[in-house]
Amino acid sequence: MTMRIRVFGYMNNIYYQHGIPEIFQSRLIKIAMSLFGMKHKTERKMISNGFAKQPAKIPDSLLKHFNIKEAEQDARKIYPISPAES
Question: Over the stretch 58-69, which tens digit does the pLDDT of each residue have?
Answer without folding.
Answer: 889 888 889 988
